[in-house]
């Protein structure tokens, strides 16, 4: 690891480097030097991202654009250059590595401690979208085609069911059936997009609570992180993925399904934060589609967890056997809960 660390322009000599965080995709390390100075070192997932140099160009141009609006280093994710002045390096095995400044005096939550935490994350992701509203979207590479194209995600689930590559379908048949019943919702947003009724915006596309850094004392937003999937997308999807994760009454992989559901109070708190930061830029139809964004992001993510379980856990990082199936189960229950709460969600949005 020392060899990799020395590829970057560090302040001081590295004295510590250990695995860090709870992301499902990249391999993340916290590195500390004797300066002392803290950095985030990441091995970027080559299996998930087909064009890492292109991905790094996206991140570099987005962070430069954001920095022109706010030069405070805690307010924008900051890439640390390599000794050659590049944004990333490659090791002998062809793996790609990058480094960020560690956002100091910050906290990153896997679950909100209270409603205000979720409201603050809504402000963070809403402001992010707002700050990028005039960003030249055509210069961004589409990092993963069809990333939030729910009908395509259902095709991928159906292929996984058909191939049954890991021989797990028998065990997961009830879950597969449950997703296929809910497939009726899948085309809702893509149909509106294809008809030209919804605009594409520069969106984050992975708006989990643990992809935003809050100030450790005040729990107010510092910056949005995990910019790997920034590309043109729908406002409702950014809104919805935050609800999927942050407004859940349980963890993503809770085994006791009696704890699983969506909290309308947390939904309302996030919606207040998000709309206060970017509501004035959204069209009336975009605002109306926010509740369906929550339902669809939950349905879609759950279908991806199930497909990955059937494929043999090849995409999302798992910490124990069966974790992707447990994630898929919570997302069935969450989606069903959202189906029941759609009218209440719509009322909350109208009232805000
Ligand atoms: P993944 O794509 O695997 O989710 P992330 O970029 O989200 O990777 O990083 C994983 C975790 O590492 C985050 O949830 C956060 O806890 C931590 N992290 C990432 N970047 C920073 C940073 N610049 N400062 C502090 N913590 C960070
Ligand atoms: C992944 O990287 P992370 O853990 O922030 C995934 C998201 C899923 C999420 C589910 C690039 O996000 O799409 O919604 O897991 N990221 C990618 O928790 O696939
Ligand atoms: Mg992440």
Structure overview:
The protein is α+β, with helices and mostly antiparallel strands and 352 residues long. The protein has two domains: 103 residues, 2-Layer Sandwich (Phosphorylase Kinase, domain 1), CATH 3.30.200; 237 residues, Alpha-Beta Complex (Aminoglycoside 3'-phosphotransferase, Chain: A, domain 2), CATH 3.90.1200.10. 45% of the residues lie in helices and 13% in strands. The protein contains eleven helices and ten strands. Helix 8 crosses helix 11 and helix 10 runs antiparallel to helix 11. It is globular and about 55 Å long. The model has no long low-confidence stretch (mean pLDDT 97). The protein binds adenosine-5'-diphosphate, 2-acetamido-2-deoxy-1-O-phosphono-alpha-D-glucopyranose and magnesium ion.
Number of domains: 2
Number of strands: 10
Approximate strand percentage: 5-15%
What would the principal axes of the Cα set say about the shape? globular
CATH class of the largest domain: Alpha Beta
Radius of gyration: 20 Å
The largest sheet has its strands arranged as 1-2-3-5-4
Compute the average pLDDT: 97
Q: Work out the oligomeric state of the chains in this entry.
A: single chain
Q: List low-pLDDT spans.
A: none
User: If helices are DSSP runs of H or I spanning 4 or more residues, what is the number of helices?
Assistant: 11
> Quick one: biggest sheet?
5 strands, antiparallel
Instruction: Based on the coordinates given, report the CATH architecture of the largest domain.
Output: Alpha-Beta Complex
Which small-molecule ligands are present, each listed once? adenosine-5'-diphosphate, 2-acetamido-2-deoxy-1-O-phosphono-alpha-D-glucopyranose, magnesium ion
Through-space gap between termini: 50 Å
């Amino acid at each position: 690891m020392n060899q990799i660390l020395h590829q970057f322009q560090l302040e001081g000599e590295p004295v510590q480097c250990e695995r860090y965080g709870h992301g499902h995709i990249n391999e993340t390390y916290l590195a500390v030097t004797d300066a002392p100075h803290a950095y985030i070192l990441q091995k970027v997932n080559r299996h998930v991202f087909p064009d890492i140099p292109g991905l790094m160009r996206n991140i570099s141009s987005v962070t430069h654009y954001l920095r022109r609006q706010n030069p405070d280093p805690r307010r924008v994710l900051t890439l640390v250059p390599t000794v050659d002045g590049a944004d990333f390096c490659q090791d002998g095995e062809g793996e790609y590595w990058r480094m960020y400044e560690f956002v100091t005096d910050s906290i990153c939550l896997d679950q909100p401690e209270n409603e205000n935490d979720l409201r603050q994350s809504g402000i963070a992701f809403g402001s992010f979208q707002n700050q990028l509203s005039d960003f030249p979207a055509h210069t961004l590479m589409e990092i993963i085609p069809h990333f939030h194209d729910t009908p395509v995600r259902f095709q991928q689930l159906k292929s996984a069911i058909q191939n049954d590559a890991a021989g797990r379908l028998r065990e997961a048949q009830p879950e597969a059936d449950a997703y296929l019943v809910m497939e009726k919702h899948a085309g809702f947003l893509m149909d509106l997009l294809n008809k030209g009724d919804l605009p594409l915006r520069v969106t984050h596309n992975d708006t989990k609570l643990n992809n935003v850094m809050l100030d450790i004392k005040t729990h107010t937003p510092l910056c949005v992180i995990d910019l790997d999937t920034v590309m043109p997308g729908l406002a409702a999807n950014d809104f919805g993925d935050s609800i999927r994760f942050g407004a859940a009454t349980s963890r993503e992989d809770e085994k006791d399904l009696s704890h699983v559901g969506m909290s309308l109070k947390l939904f309302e708190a996030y919606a207040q934060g998000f709309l206060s930061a970017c509501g004035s830029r959204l069209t009336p139809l975009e605002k109306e589609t926010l509740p369906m964004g929550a339902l669809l992001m939950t349905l879609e993510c759950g279908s991806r967890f199930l497909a990955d379980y059937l494929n043999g856990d090849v995409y999302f990082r798992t910490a124990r056997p069966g974790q992707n199936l447990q994630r898929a189960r919570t997302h069935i229950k969450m989606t069903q809960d959202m189906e029941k709460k759609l009218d209440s969600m719509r009322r909350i949005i109208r009232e805000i």
